[in-house]
Design goal:
By secondary structure, the protein is an all-alpha fold. Helices cover 77% and strands 0% of the residues. It contains 10 helices and no strands. Helix 1 packs across helix 4. The radius of gyration is 23 Å and the shape is elongated. It starts with a helix and ends with a helix.
Length: 298
């Protein structure tokens, strides 16, 4: 349940901060007339995300078992790809998120109502679709063994989203200061661990769909030591999507994803100037030196 709570919290807070920044900017610039199109865009984005999640859940129930596993495995892998891209992107842009959104909103204000609706829709809609897909994959993985119960994983997501909305409201009211870069770094690292479990589960789905082999080749089986229905088995399942009897392919994919991805994500970023900046500074220095030499020669 904690893993799903983390997903709801992180993804929900990201969307909440986007909404707060857009609205606060319009209020401070005395453009309250533009609030209605912004809310329309946000509402459409939320509705689309909910419809997408419902389509995934109910549409997959009409398929055969093999087709369900193939769809579930493929979408789980796609969800991991999207969430991995998202955590790296947010880590790079967290410091400049406010300025980037302000720039887009200024351009939309000049273009009119339709552009405002599109700006809000695109800003929130991308987060909503990514969240719906990753939540669906994670809840499906967490519920597969029945260890978390039917509703516990979804309850974790809902609690995370409600917490995110509350924190976003506090942020808007000025009662909460958030170091976005640090927050998204810590939660992003934990989300990479959750994503690794979702990826392993997606691979297991593809094996059950007979798209991949090796279903009977177990890497280990600790079901007797860590029963899935025990409190600690439930905890490991809810947080890490832990499976007591994974296949060799699952463990291999899990390790090949988690180790390099986490190492890259936790590596220092922005500790020094980029090569382009260094090259620009060197060019400016050379130009100044050349100008000084020409002046001295003249």
């Amino acid at each position: 349940m904690f893993g799903n709570y983390l997903i709801g919290l992180r993804e929900g807070l990201e969307a909440s901060l986007v909404v707060c920044i857009l609205i606060a900017y319009l209020v401070k610039t005395e453009r309250r007339d533009a609030l209605k199109p912004i809310w329309i865009g946000i509402g459409v984005a939320v509705g689309l995300a909910l419809a997408f999640g419902a389509g995934l859940e109910f549409g997959s129930q009409e398929l055969t078992f093999e087709a369900q596993e193939l769809l579930g495995g493929s979408l789980s892998i796609l969800a991991v790809v999207l969430v991995t891209w998202m955590v790296f992107w947010m880590r790079r842009t967290a410091r400049h998120l406010r300025a980037e959104l302000h720039g887009r909103l200024d351009a939309a204000l000049r273009m009119g109502t339709g552009a405002l609706v599109a700006t809000a829709f695109l800003a929130v809609g991308r987060e909503g679709l990514e969240t719906a897909l990753f939540v669906w994959a994670s809840v499906r993985a967490a519920s597969s063994s029945g260890a978390d119960g039917t509703y516990a994983p979804l309850a974790g997501v809902v609690l995370g989203l409600l917490t995110a909305v509350f924190l976003g409201w506090l942020f808007y009211r000025g009662a909460l200061r958030i170091n976005l870069a640090r927050f998204f770094t810590w939660t992003g690292g934990m989300l990479v661990v959750v994503a690794a479990g979702v990826l392993a589960y997606g691979v297991h789905d593809l094996q059950e769909a007979r798209f991949l082999g090796g279903l009977g080749n177990k890497a280990f089986d600790v079901s007797a030591t860590i029963p899935p229905d025990s409190w600690y088995g439930t905890l490991l399942k809810g947080v890490f999507n832990f499976q007591p009897d994974p296949t060799v392919v699952q463990v291999t994919v899990w390790a090949l994803y988690l180790i390099p991805t986490l190492a890259l994500f936790l590596a220092p970023v922005g500790s020094g100037p980029s090569r382009r900046v260094e090259k620009q500074k060197a060019t400016e220095t050379d130009e100044k030196a050349e100008a000084n030499r020409a002046e001295a020669a003249g």
